[in-house]
Amino acid sequence: MNAFLKLYRFLHEPKTTIGWAHGVLTLVGAFLLAYLGGMSVTLVLKGDAAMRLLPSMLLTPLLICCFGFWLLFSKTLLHVMVKIALMVFLNACIIAYF
Q1: Is-contact 34 63, C-beta < 8 A?
Q2: From CA 73, how far away is CA 22, in angstroms rounded?
């Protein structure tokens, strides 16, 4: 029971208390979500390989910045993990559909 209480307190701490964990998780999450977003764009487009990869190559740096800011403005570490999990699920659904 004590371990669950510690985990609960850690996940609900404000981001000023756990700045490094929040920042590292945001950084890793932004790169992961941008990669999955680029893969989703590549799968949706039709054409040869160069025409399918070019938009994802151009969008990936922009997506990294957008996802990074979106995740960084989360109140707690739990919100960051929920946002990452939901976006991974959405990208997996898009990849599975196409």
Answers
A1: yes
A2: 10
State the sign of the Cα–Cα–Cα–Cα dihedral 3, 70, 18, 61: positive
Residue whose tokens read 């945001």? 26
Rounded Cα–Cα distance for residues 22 and 89 (Å):
21
- Residue 46 dihedral angles phi and psi, to the nearest 5°: -110, 155
| Phi, psi angles (nearest 5°) of residue 66 | -65, -50
CA-to-CA distance for 75 and 2, rounded, in angstroms? 24
Nearest Cα residue to 70 out of 87, 56, 53, 57: 87
pTM of the model: 0.74
- Integer Cα distance of 90 and 48 in angstroms: 25
pLDDT tens figures, 17-64: 667 778 888 899 999 999 988 888 888 888 888 888 888 888 889 999
Which residue(s) pair with 76 in the sheet?
14
